[in-house]
Amino acid sequence: MYSVSINNSVFEVEKSAASIKVNDTILNWDITKTGENHYSVIFENNSFNLELVSIDKDSKTVILKLNNKSCEIKLKDKFDLLLEKLGMNMMASNAVKDIKAPMPGLIFDIKVKEGDEVKKGDPVLILEAMKMENILKSPGDGIVQTIKIKKGQSVEKNQVLIQF
To answer: Which of the listed residues 53, 69, 91 is the one where a domain comes to its end?
Structure first.
């Protein structure tokens, strides 16, 4: 059994050798690979073009394009569901405490403000170092508590820039 989240809707999915069941309904579809990461799907006499854009195994997230519309799918397997049921899910491990400068440089731009909620991978600031702009992204989920730097400020390696 899997739990699949698509655009804030959650579905229960069961897969067997013969079929796929979504919310207790067996789906009958025909899927044909048409190219690298491209598929043709026929479901209920309708044809769809499917492109597999990316798979992030760590976060169990798949990004697809269905008829050129982007769609993010988050998966939870039976172990994730059991941990969640026991209250031991990994949400706390995604929490971030602060972001430190990975190298000396100049703060080129700040993309967040105090009180903003950020998710893992969201860009938070741009650090210019060695004539290159480096986008620093949030290593986890959190709410920006304190911004310890200003645009145009020079920073040293390991200096705390943002606290969550």
So the answer is: 91
